[in-house]
Amino acid sequence: MAGLDDDFILVDGVEKVFDVRKKTGFLRRERREVRAVDGISFSVARGEMVGYIGPNGAGKSTTIKMLTGILTPSGGRLRVAGIEPARERTRLARRIGVVFGQRTTLWWDLPLIDSYRLMHRMYRIPDARFRANLDRCVELLDLGGLLDVPVRQLSLGQRMRGDIAAALLHDPEVLYLDEPTIGLDVVSKAKVRGFLRDLNAESGTTVLLTTHDLQDIEQLCRRVMVIDHGRLMYDGALAGLHEVGESERTLVVDLARELPEVSVAGARVVRVEGPRQWLAFPASASAAPLVTELAASYPVVDLSVREPDIEAVIAQMYADRSAALG
Ligand SMILES: Nc1ncnc2c1ncn2[C@@H]1O[C@H](COP(=O)(O)OP(=O)(O)OP(=O)(O)O)[C@@H](O)[C@H]1O
């Protein structure tokens, strides 16, 4: 039987149904059910860092809100660090940290340090621990020069780093991150990712990361879960996403001159630009026979194989699913 460390976050057949009422006439109201989360099961082991991705409206935020206890599930069973979130929200709050990229938990008009001092009291963090955590965050998140700046004057990247620090001052064992790199420039993204990687490796903090930026996932998570229409469509290694759906690789061929579309068995031309042609072939097939056949029949100057990028694979997954649903 799996222990608490294996099921540190446990989601078992969880559902969330919203009752939406819409006015459709003078006295008429229509009731509609929105199944935001439709029977999801997964568990996250202590110390794991897992990506949670899916298109807009898939049910990601609803899942996170249930995991923090803000929302009560309509069905199923949830446990975080052995605690049932909706029943013991305050007790759970001491064990988890939450960062919503699109919103701040900091006090807008106060200098950053004042927000941290308020959290120190709110969470009743022992003084020594507060100081040690603050020093560490200030150093690693580069907040030194920003502590006396009112939050509203911080750039988005600075504010995000400030928010991440705020979520970590009470030493949470679990960190939920909802779009932590949204709107950040390349340098800020790299800083945030580096920090999260070290935090997970060194402190063993369990991290559930929601993002639209697949580079976050590629750089941080070995495991990824994909949710769509409230259902879990994939849960596994990042590398395995490539095998989901009928994904394709691309052979890029440079010919000696412009030619009509080449013809080889097992591949199809998907694009032509001057002497360069792009051929799609199944990701599971070997490129070797294609290369041999091309080289034998055409004046090939150069060749390269492009792996499917994760975004294309996911787009393909959704397309396959829509087609299957008709
Ligand atoms: N309070 C609510 N009342 C009614 N419907 C809701 C409520 N909250 C969310 N929904 C609906 O539930 C579904 C899932 O929403 P959710 O916010 O969880 O998606 P998401 O995956 O986080 O999307 P995004 O990436 O856009 O944030 C959507 O159809 C949304 O409109």
Automatic annotation (TrEMBL):
Locations listed in the record: Cell membrane
KW Nucleotide-binding (keyword) present: yes
SUPFAM superfamilies reported for this sequence: P-loop containing nucleoside triphosphate hydrolases (SSF52540)
UniProt protein name: ATP-binding cassette domain-containing protein
Lineage: Bacteria, Bacillati, Actinomycetota, Actinomycetes, Kitasatosporales
Source superkingdom: Bacteria
Transmembrane regions: none
Boundaries of every ABC transporter domain copy: 15-254
InterPro entries the record matches: AAA+_ATPase, ABC_transporter-like_ATP-bd, ABC_transporter_ATP-binding, P-loop_NTPase
Pfam families: ABC_tran
Source organism of the structure: Streptomyces cavernicola
Keyword annotations from UniProtKB, A to Z: Antibiotic resistance, ATP-binding, Nucleotide-binding, Transport
Membrane topology term: Peripheral membrane protein
